[in-house]
Amino acid sequence: MAIGERIRELRVGKGLSVTELASRAGVAKSYISSVERGIQLNPSIQFLHKIASVLDVSVESLITQEPSPSETIDSEWLELAKEAMNSGISKEQFKEFLEFQKWQKTKK
Known about the structure:
By secondary structure, the chain is mostly helical. It folds into 2 domains: 3-71, 434 Repressor (Amino-terminal Domain) (Orthogonal Bundle), CATH 1.10.260; 75-107. It has helices at residues 3-13, 18-25, 29-36, 45-55, 59-63, 75-86, 91-107. The longest helix has 17 residues, at 91-107. The relative contact order is 0.10.
C-alpha cells in the first residue's frame, strides 16, 4: 500500500476530513491531497511526523507495507465479522446494533 493510500485509510478511520487533518498537523490541505492521490510520491520526513502525530501512529506504520501488530485485527474478531457477513447481516444493520449496544450501556 502506498504512503498516500495509508494516510487516507488512517484519516478516514479517524473520521477526519483532509481539511481537519491539515489544520491539526499544520500542513497544507492541497499537499495532503496530492500525497493521498499519489501525485506527490516522496513526502518529507517532517510532513510524515506531523501527519503521524495527528493520526496517532508511528511514521514507520505510514511507510511500511504491513500494519504494525497493534493495528492488526484479532483473529476472533475477524471470525465474528465473517460470521456476521455470512449470516446476511448488512453493514448498516451491524452499525445499528453497535449503536444500540452503546446506547444501552449509557442507560445502565
